[in-house]
C-alpha cells in the first residue's frame, strides 16, 4: 500500500513538471509570436541621438543666455555627452564648432471666442532659431515652429496660467530634443 502511494505521488510530480514545462513552452511561443508580429509590421525602436564627433566639443552661445530654452538646451547637450566650452580663445575658436541660439518667440493667435467676446481658445506658436558654425564649413541656419492649442477660462485664471507654464515647459523640452536630433543628422 505504501509503495502504491509513493508511486502515485511520483507520477503526480512528473505530471506537474510536464504541465509546468508545457506552460513554459507556451509562454516562450507567445513571446516569439509577439516579436514576429512587431517586426513584421515595420516597428523599430527609436535609437538615441548620436552627436557627430566634430560636435562633441561645442561652444554654446545665445542672444539670451539666461532664458529657459538656453538652460534646457545646455542640460540636454550635457546629457548627450557633449562637452561645452564656455571660455574660448582665438586659437580654439577655429577648431571648435559654435551653436548660437537666437531669441525664441511665442505667438498667440485667437482660435475661438466665448459668446461674451472673451477668448476661449488660443493657438500657441513657439518659434526657435539657431545657427551652427563648424570649422572650415559654411554656417547652417535652422528654424522651426511648434504649435499647441490652449483653452482659456477667465474664471480659472490662476489654474490656466499654471497650465500655460506647463505647456511652455513641454514645448521647450520638445524644441531642445529637436535641436539635438537635427544636430545628430548633420
UniProtKB/TrEMBL annotation:
Pfam families: LptE. The keyword Lipoprotein applies. One of its GO terms (molecular function) is lipopolysaccharide binding. Component of the lipopolysaccharide transport and assembly complex. Interacts with LptD. Belongs to the LptE lipoprotein family. Together with LptD, is involved in the assembly of lipopolysaccharide (LPS) at the surface of the outer membrane. Required for the proper assembly of LptD. Binds LPS and may serve as the LPS recognition site at the outer membrane. This is LPS-assembly lipoprotein LptE. The lineage of its organism: Bacteria, Pseudomonadati, Pseudomonadota, Gammaproteobacteria, Alteromonadales. The gene is lptE.
Amino acid at each position: 500500500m505504501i509503495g502504491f502511494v509513493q508511486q502515485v505521488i511520483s507520477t503526480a510530480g512528473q505530471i506537474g513538471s510536464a504541465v509546468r514545462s508545457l506552460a513554459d513552452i507556451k509562454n516562450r511561443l507567445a513571446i516569439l509570436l509577439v516579436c514576429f508580429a512587431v517586426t513584421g509590421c515595420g516597428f523599430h525602436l527609436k535609437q538615441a541621438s548620436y552627436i557627430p564627433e566634430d560636435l562633441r566639443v561645442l561652444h554654446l552661445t545665445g542672444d539670451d543666455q539666461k532664458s529657459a530654452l538656453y538652460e534646457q538646451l545646455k542640460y540636454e547637450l550635457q546629457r548627450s555627452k557633449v562637452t561645452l566650452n564656455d571660455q574660448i580663445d582665438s586659437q580654439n575658436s577655429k577648431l571648435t564648432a559654435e551653436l548660437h541660439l537666437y531669441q525664441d518667440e511665442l505667438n498667440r493667435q485667437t482660435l475661438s471666442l466665448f459668446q461674451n467676446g472673451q477668448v476661449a481658445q488660443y493657438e500657441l506658436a513657439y518659434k526657435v532659431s539657431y545657427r551652427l558654425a563648424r570649422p572650415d564649413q559654411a554656417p547652417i541656419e535652422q528654424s522651426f515652429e511648434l504649435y499647441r492649442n490652449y483653452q482659456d477660462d477667465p474664471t480659472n485664471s490662476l489654474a490656466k496660467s499654471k497650465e500655460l507654464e506647463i505647456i511652455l515647459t513641454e514645448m521647450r523640452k520638445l524644441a531642445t530634443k529637436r535641436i539635438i536630433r537635427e544636430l545628430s543628422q548633420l
